[in-house]
Amino acid sequence: MAAPLPPKPGLAAAAPAPVAVPPQGALREISPVFLCRIGQETVQDIVTRTMEIFQIARATQLPNGVNQSHAVYQDRFGKLQEHLRQLALLFRKLRLLYERCVEMTSDVQEAPAELLPFVGEELVTVRVEPCSPAVNQERQEVLEIRQKNQEMKVLMDQMRNLLWDVNAMLTLRK
Predict the structure, then answer these.
(1) Measured distance CA(96)–CA(99) in Å, rounded
(2) How many angstroms separate the CA atoms of 97 and 83, rounded?
(3) For 155-159, which contacts have Cβ atoms below 8 Å and span 24 or more sequence positions?
(4) In the 8-state DSSP scheme, what is residue 8?
(5) Is the dihedral of CA 79, 81, 84, 86 positive or negative?
(6) How many Å from the N-terminal Cα to the C-terminal Cα in the chain?
(7) Which residues, in sequence order, are CB contacts of 139 under 8 Å at separation 6+?
(8) pLDDT digits over 96-155, tens only?
(9) What confidence score (pLDDT) does residue 73 get?
(10) Considering only CA atoms, which of 92, 90, 57, 80 is closest in space to residue 9?
(11) Residues in Cβ contact with 1 at an 8 Å cutoff, skipping those fewer than 6 apart
(12) pLDDT over 80 at 2, yes or no
């Protein structure tokens, strides 16, 4: 499939984890479960790389008139470019795994439209068995609180619009 990833920075001293690679002839017999596990590890690598990118971005000082060393800038830029390149490779690997898994399980999968809940449909009411009076009372209180919250939201929106109008009129008067 894809070439193995280079070791992550800071983990170079650690021994690489052994990966069970099936022989070339067995590539056609890889199960979708194995592909999904590889995909899960790939997603974890994507998250790790993304976190490292954000750490680099957080450590980068914004230009505020102080000149940073050009070498430091080039080093951080190089690290960022390498992480982005590795991230692109991981996404390509994930896409290939996904396509292969879909291909292998095409007879099992449902149509994507069936997987999306509530698309173009009304919510189906569910029959609820009678509850204790305490639960019914608590439910009623929650519904009342929701109603009050909705009314307060409407009032706050009206007040916000009123304040905008007043501020606009005061600005025009000046």
Answers:
(1) 5
(2) 21
(3) none
(4) P
(5) negative
(6) 69
(7) 131
(8) 999 888 888 877 655 555 555 555 556 556 666 777 888 888 888 889 988 988 889 898
(9) 79
(10) 80
(11) 93, 96, 97
(12) no
pLDDT of residue 93: 94
Structure tokens at 54: 């954000």
Nearby residues of 33 by Cβ (< 8 Å), 6 or more positions away: none
State the pLDDT at residue 45: 92
**Which pLDDT does position 76 carry in this prediction?**
84
Are 56 and 76 in contact, with CB atoms under 8 Å apart? yes
Q: Return the higher-pLDDT residue of 91 and 118.
A: 91
Residue spans of alpha helices (H) in the chain: 32-59, 70-104, 112-115, 133-173
Residue with tokens 């009314």: 151
- Nearest CA to 93 out of 149, 127, 85, 72 is that of 85
Q: The tokens of 146 are what? A: 């929701």
